[in-house]
Amino acid sequence: MTSLTFSPAPATSLYERWYRHFIENRDAPRAFPWHDSSSLSAAERKLVARSIQQFQLGEWARGRGLRRRASSHPVLSSDPWFLPALELFIAEEQGHSGILGRFLDRERIPRLTSHWVDGIFRRLRKLAGLELCAMVLVTAEVLAIPFYQALRDATRSRLLRAICVRILCDEAAHLNYQALTLGLARRPLRDRARAIWYLCHSILFNGTALLLWFQHRRVFRAAGRDFRRFWIDCRRGFALLQERIRRASLDHLDELRLD
Ligand SMILES: [Fe+2]
Ligand SMILES: [Fe+2]
């Protein structure tokens, strides 16, 4: 990871603090109880194995399309810290996949090499420009939060709970990071175009949330979430994200905190 260290000339940069955040997060000690001798019970394994397999696959290599599109975006590419921060963000997502993969290996649950949901999302991200690519990515990020919260609450495994807590901390920051990118990408747009993007995002989000529920509802139910509670949590996350995007697009960046 040391190859990611970057020192451009001093400049006023919106992404410099994100670069520093990802570096600090990467280098912070992460103590997972890997040596805890207990493992998943047969019932737990049946409940969570498929869901962890899917998320382990989905967390891998996110952001390649975003990197390519952002390199030619007039606003984002002008910030010398944008691409170095993006590289670290992608590495952090890959780290999530790595931790989940190690957990699967430890539990002797095979890793998936493909899944139709993952395939749809990867194809969607390749369809169009930066806005759509970032929108698809951030949709998965917002919905990952209620999923990992439910996974944490559905298991008695100390190790799996610790992994979920770590990922949840990272993902909470990712929402602000992605809101900044989407907000900057929307700055040149008129109100009507922003309203159309909002509508498209809402449709994509609702469809993806429904898919998440149908694919992983047993985990949510085991954690005590019925569909109503799940939907309220998802829509709350979406509203928060949209507010942060709006602030970033209006240059209210002081309110976009890292934590
Ligand atoms: Fe992640
Ligand atoms: Fe994330």
Report on this structure.
With 259 residues, this protein is mainly alpha-helical. Helices cover 71% and strands 0% of the residues. It is built from nine helices and no strands. The longest helix has 32 residues. The protein is globular. The mean pLDDT is 87. One fe (ii) ion binds next to helix 4 and helix 7.
Main beta sheet strand tally, sense and closure: none
Any idea what the radius of gyration is? Answer: 18 Å
The class by helix and strand makeup works out as: mainly alpha
Strand content: under 5%
* Ligands (ions, cofactors included): fe (ii) ion
The gross shape turns out to be globular
Order of helices and strands: HHHHHHHHH
- Portion in helices: over 70%
Our measurement of the CA-to-CA distance between the termini, rounded to an integer number of angstroms, reads: 24 Å
Number of helices: 9
Low-confidence segments, given as residue ranges, are none
Number of strands: 0
Q: Give the integer mean of the pLDDT values.
A: 87
